[in-house]
Design brief:
By secondary structure, the protein is of the alpha+beta class. About 50% of the residues lie in helices and about 25% in strands. The chain is built from four helices and six strands, in the order αααββββββα. It has a six-stranded antiparallel beta sheet with strand order 4-3-6-1-2-5. Helix 1 runs antiparallel to helix 2, helix 1 packs across helix 4 and helix 2 crosses helix 3. The chain is globular, with a radius of gyration of 18 Å.
């Protein structure tokens, strides 16, 4: 008997479903790799650079989220795909507005964004980030630049996972 959490296929759709499953597995492997990289960064930061306990405590849940979401994506446990969606949704938008800043990337990002400085000049930006990042800050003073960015990789991962859930 087939596991109800696994994909069910017919001969007509098996090739298309196989492609969708492979895309989700890629997302899963990236999430597992992100968990590993984040763990290494956290350990090195804690021991070598004296990272504080709050930084460590905010990193641990994201490491667990990446690891569990990656594992469930690789093993095609469809009922747990919401963890991958949550993980990627947290990475879709990065903002820096006024005194507030939020950024989260698992392995990196390809960002498309809008930047506005204090004198009112607006620019459209494109960026590539190849690092694991988590930032959540409330600063005492207003930042000189307001930024809203969308991670195109995270958006594509969310689309891949939703497609797999819908095709189940």
């Amino acid at each position: 008997m087939q596991n109800p959490n696994q994909y069910q296929t017919t001969s007509k759709t098996s090739r298309k479903l196989q492609f969708i499953k492979e895309r989700v597995k890629v997302v899963g492997y990236v999430q597992l790799l992100a968990a590993l990289v984040m763990t290494i960064v956290l350990v090195v930061g804690f021991f070598a650079e004296g990272e504080s306990a709050p930084v460590t405590l905010t990193g641990l849940p994201l490491i667990f989220l990446n690891a569990i979401a990656g594992y469930t994506a690789i093993t095609s446990q469809v009922k747990w795909y919401f963890l991958s969606i949550l993980n990627q949704a947290l990475q879709v938008v990065s903002v820096q507005l006024g005194a507030f800043a939020y950024t989260y990337t698992g392995m990196g990002a390809i960002n498309l964004g809008i930047n506005r400085d204090l004198i009112g000049e607006t620019q459209v930006g494109f960026g590539l980030l190849l690092s694991s990042t988590f930032e959540l800050e409330m600063k005492a003073s207003t930042m000189k630049l307001s930024v809203v960015e969308v991670d195109l990789v995270a958006v594509s991962f969310v689309i891949a996972i939703f497609t797999a859930m819908r095709r189940r």
